[in-house]
Amino acid sequence: MIALSAALHMNEFSILGQDETVRGLVARARRGDPSAFEEIVRRHQDRVYNLAYRMLRNHEDAEDLTQEAFLRVFESLSRLRDDRALGAYITRVTANLCISWLRTKRRRSEQTADPAQLASIPASGDSELQAQLRAAVSELAPKYQLAITAFYLEGRSYEEAAYALGISTRALKTRLYRARAMLRQTVSDLAGEGKEKAR
Amino acid sequence: MKCVRALSLIQLFLDANLTDVVAEELRTHLDTCTMCSREYAALRNVDCALAGEPLVDPPSALARTIARRAAARQLTARRVLLPAWLEALSLGGMTVALGASGFVGISLLTSVADLHLSPAMTAAGVAAVIATGLAIFSSSFYGAEI
Q: Quick check: is B127 in a domain?
């Protein structure tokens, strides 16, 4: 858990120590240097792809959304005021895209993944509880899904997750509180069903 | 501490977002209250499972693909930046420039006729004027395209 958070965390909110590098990269990318933008993508792609994947639960959709997010960031690089906030800005663009993607998908009633199906998606080191939770998270409203996903991807930091989502810390805490309460209820319901089946 | 308050603090406790004093009060309550400690255990399980969700690797060529698409989009954007009316204006300006350079060339030729230049020098002068006009024309056109 710590490794996961730390790996993602190192990428961005610790950029204060490498301001010049980030600024230099952004400046070169603004001038149209493709290698600079590729480097920016490399630095942030893990977080963006994982956020998209956790929200959409589909590799193809996650890849498409990641591409679209970075292309939007590229087009708005000239309007970015604080280069140091690039990572948070990228996350925010991704989060907004995830929400509109999910809304569109639900509206069209396209293959919204069946929770039972989601729970069966294998992942290395996966526990039964994680599988159940994954299914339960996908059932939450997008804003709660996003709060949960961003919070854990951003190294359990209220401030960073809230900043990335463009909401106040207080709002994030409220969403997290409600989301985890719902998840806790779902998990205990599932556990209860499991016990009944076992009988 | 009462159960209602304890239950409202459990998540903040899991996030290490309580002061030491309040955290200690909560710990004491959890040690003595079965219902709250059960709730704490359930929420801790949820928290650990969410935090332990494994990462997935993005496709290896993703960064390169995105950079290529960005470069292509940038090229298109530059072309789109020049609206049709501006291109027409640019073309008109180029034509005027070419005409003006021709006019200047002819004027120069008539004014230097009295100098009795050799045919080779005259031809070189005409070629230089035309080349200048063409250069202005082509550079403006190139600028309009890119």
A: yes
**B35 and chain A in contact, CB less than 8 A:** no
Indicate yes or no: pTM above 0.95: no
Query: Would you say B62 and A49 are in contact if contact means Cβ atoms under 8 Å apart?
Result: yes
Q: Is B51 on the interface with A (CB under 8 A)?
A: yes
In this structure, what DSSP letter does residue A71 have? H
| Phi/psi at A184 (5° precision) | -60, -40
Q: Give a yes or no: residue B15 inside a domain.
A: yes
Q: B88 and B40 share a domain?
A: no
Choose the closest CB to B71 out of A34, A62, A156: A34
Distance CA B37, CA B23 (A): 14
ipTM of the complex: 0.71
User: What is the spatial distance between Cα B59 and Cα A65, in angstroms, rounded to a whole number?
Assistant: 13
Q: A72 burial class (0-12, 13-18, 19+ CB within 10 angstroms)?
A: middle
Kindly tell me if the per-residue pLDDT of A129 is higher than 80.
Answer: no
- The 10s digit of each residue's pLDDT in B106-122 is 776 676 666 666 777 77
B72–A contact, CB cutoff 8 A: no
Ramachandran region, residue A114 (left: φ > 0; alpha: ψ -120 to 50; beta: rest)? beta
Domain around B107? 83-145
Q: What are the CA-CA distances from residue B34 to residues A182, A185, B38, B40 (Å)?
A: 21, 18, 6, 10
Task: Give, as one character, the DSSP assignment of residue B82.
Answer: S
Amino acid at B24: E
Write the class of the CATH domain A2-198.
mainly alpha
**A128 touching B, CB under 8 A?**
no
| Residue pointed to by tokens 């080191």 | A125
- Contact predicate A160/A169, CB 8 Å: no
Q: Which residue of A has its CA nearest to B66?
A: A67
